[in-house]
# Entry
Amino acid sequence: MTLHIQTPVESWPRPHRLHIQLKMECFQPVGSFKIRGIGHLCERLVADGVDHLVSSSGGNAGFATAWAGRQLGVPVTVVTPSSTPQVVCDWLRGEKAEVLVHGSDWAEANDHACRLTESNGAALVHPFDHELIWAGHASLVRELTSQLDSPPDAIVVAVGGGGLLAGIDHGLVTAAEQDPRWAEVDLIGVETFGAASLAKGLAEGKDAALDGIDTVATTLGARQVCRRALQATDHRAVHSLLVNDKQAIDGCVKFANDRRVLVEPSCGAALAPIYDDVNFFQSKQALADYHDILVVVCGGIGVNLHQLKQWQAQFGLDEGTVKT
Ligand SMILES: *Cc1c(COP(=O)(O)O)cnc(C)c1O
# Structure
C-alpha cells in the first residue's frame, strides 16, 4: 500500500530559453509532496505496532500525518502553537485529528508533542528529519525515471528543513545504480531570504543555524536544515538560490494565472527563478549552462484565493507582476 499517488510531469507551456518540466506534487491527495515521506514513515510505524501518531506541525506535515493516520486507522494528535491559523486547525479536524493548541512557537509545541509520545504505543512524526521520510520522498525520483526520456540537468526544490532535498538526493543516488546518467543531476535549493537555512548551512557547515525566521513562506521556516540535506554535496553540486517574499508571492500569482493552480509561497519561491531567468539562472555562472530543468511543484494547503489576494495587496502585486 502506498498513500501517495504518481503525479504528472507537465511541460512549461510557453517559449522559454530553458526546457522546463514541472513535477506536479500539488496534486497529491494532501496537496503537497509531504505524503510521500510522512506516509511512508507512518505506514512503517503502524506496521511496527505504533497505535497513536503525534505531529507537532501546524502545516503540511501535520496535515499529511492526520491524513495518513486516518487511512491507516490509527488516531492522530497534532500539537500546534497558538500562531497556527484557524483554517489549518479546521483542515486537521476534518481529517479526524485531535488538535491541541500548545505554546506560542513551534519549539514549545514540539516539546509538548515529545512528552505525549512518552506513553506506550505513541510515536512522534517529525516533519523532515527521518531516514524513512527521505526514503519516501525518494519515490518522486523513481517516478521520474519512468516518466522522462532523459534526466534533467538540475532539479529545483524549495527547502525548509531539507527533507525534500535529502529525499531527492537519495532517489538520485538509487536511480544512478540503474542508469549512471542520473548521477549527473544537480540540485538547486530555493529559499526566501528570511528562511535561508540551507544557504547558511552550505556556507558555514552543519552546525550553522539561523537566529530567527522572517518570511511569508512560513513552510520554509526551519532554523537549520537536517544533516542529510547537506550531505547531498557529497554526491553532486547543490546550489542555493534566494528569492524575496515579493518574488515568492509573484510566483504564486503567475502560476495561478498560467496553470490555474493555487500553491503556497514556499512553492511560489521555487517557481520564482523560472519567471526571472535573467536574474536567477543567467546571472550565475554555475547555472547558466543548464538547458533542461525540472521544478518540483511542492504545493501546500496554506493558501486560498482570499489569502493570495491579501498577499498580492501587501506586496503591491495587484497587477500580478513585479514592477522593477
Ligand atoms: C514541507 C514543505 C516544504 C519544505 O520541505 P522540507 O522537507 O522541510 O525542506 C516546501 N513546500 C511545501 C509546500 C512543504 O509542505
Notes: The chain has a mean pLDDT of 94. The longest strand covers residues 186-192.
